[in-house]
Amino acid sequence: xxxxxxxxxxxxxxxxxxxxxxxxxxxxxxxxxxxxxxxxxxxxxxxxxxxxxxxxxxxxxxxxxxxxxxxxxxxxxxxxxxxxxxxxxxxxxxxxxxxxxxxxxxxxxxxxxxxxxxxxxxxxxxxxxxxxxxxxxxxxxxxxxxxxxxxxxxxxxxxxxxxxxxxxxxxxxxxxxxxxxxxxxxxxxxxxxxxxxxxxxxxxxxxxxxxxxxxxxxxxxxxxxxxxxxxxxxxxxxxxxxxxxxxxxxxxxxxxxxxxxxxxxxxxxxxxxxxxxxxxxxxxxxxxxxxxxxxxxxxxxxxxxxxxxxxxxxxxxxxxxxxxxxxxxxxxxxxxxxxxxxxxxxxxxxxxxxxxxxxxxxxxxxxxxxxxxxxxxxxxxxxxxxxxxxxxxxxxxxxxxxxxxxxxxxxxxxxxxxxxxxxxxxxxxxxxxxxxxxxxxxxxxxxxxxxxxxxxxxxxxxxxxxxxxxxxxxxxxxxxxxxxxxxxxxxxxxxxxxxxxxxxxxxxxxxxxxxxxxxxxxxxxxxxxxxxxxxxxxxxxxxxxxxx
Length: 548
Fold this sequence. Notes:
Layout: E1 2-5, H1 6-11, E2 35-38, E3 42-49, E4 52-59, H2 63-81, H3 89-96, E5 98-100, H4 105-117, H5 127-133, H6 153-160, E6 169-170, E7 176-178, H7 189-205, E8 211-215, E9 219-224, E10 232-237, E11 246-252, E12 255-261, E13 266-269, E14 272-275, E15 290-297, H8 300-313, H9 315-325, E16 328-333, E17 337-340, E18 349-351, E19 359-360, H10 366-374, E20 380-382, H11 388-395, E21 401-404, H12 432-445, H13 448-458, H14 471-479, H15 482-492, H16 504-519, H17 525-547
Parallel strand pairs: 17-19
Antiparallel strand pairs: 1-20, 1-21, 2-3, 3-4, 4-8, 5-7, 6-7, 8-9, 9-12, 10-11, 11-18, 12-15, 13-14, 15-16, 16-17
Helix pairs in contact: 2-7, 4-8, 7-8, 8-9, 10-11, 13-14, 16-17
């Protein structure tokens, strides 16, 4: 049964123009340190610290004072975290092999935990590798990218001997970090922006600001609303576009957004892209099949660490790690598929990347499909009549819902639908009394009255035709004509043999997989049909051998 969203039908062929609020520092028209204060309770500022530009926006009666306090909080982070800054915690540990981390105890514990949970995909001791590759050079405007080189394998192997977060010894009670290996050095840059965002975030939260934003490009915090009462709109950058291009927009409030991508600092040699997100387990830039990962959560430090770890791990393992932390995540793979780990993302993510060749992959699970349709993200789905009740509850009054027959190959097609489902049965063992009781229960369950009530409540077909003559069932169908589509289609179908459940799971999985590849232009339709036939025939052969 095809289920149609009429709102989408109206949108077909219509080009939607979307004005994006993109918090990209390169798009700023002011220089670092320049700011504005308006009389209407709005203040904005751009400051340079920690090697990046921070964009601060405050909406409050005393906006200027709040903004200045947030600025000071940001300025104090560089001297605390930078491994280059003499006297910083990172510098002290790297030179003395121990440091008191109690000042940022929770932050360090979180980062260390992500290192453990990701099994080293995120590693606080990656500094020797970072120095070897030296991607920081790419941040200099006058640097010649063509001079970048891939380090020798021997040098990478040597640097790898100095990368191992498990050699860090952290005392929870005192906050003291030590190591027995003098070659172990820490780099807190991967969580640096997140830590700084958290400091400015604390300033905004304890103020009387009605709204605010602190952005470091890849790490952003938004709270409250803008002056006009609307929530902040944050563009999700196109990993293969320019700095002002986007593949979607997040409309959010009171949360943090952290993004890691292979486009921020990179160079190319012999057709290979070498980017700054290193895999501590290999010594090379992560080759995970991803271009970008965005984490939406309450804590910028966790978000920064997880966006890096998930990028290195790849889609499947990254999804699992995000689920472990209970955060929402958006993944962009190298085939330009956009994935998300939680249907809630659809409530605030607006996909805009179609014209740039991106595809919003909604997943194959029943829940993901139903949520996507209910939120208006897809125009049509194919599902069981039993899912229609759930779909109607998700759609509500959002749009007009319609149903249609499954499509036919041609006008003369005599196909249709097959019967499937569960069954009721009685064991031939036990007392006659129990068998008689069981039979009475089955008669009750299959009675026209029971089936009418059950079918109306669930959307499933009644097992008896008499149920459709019951007044309550007739009233239900009159109020909900969408259910008649499946009923009429079944009545008109010639195939009453049901589905061969022995290979049904394999068949369904193969069909879904190959349709997806066709839509992604990976294979043509004929190849897809051949793949499906081969998979099903192989499954049938195994099934028949096992059941002969």
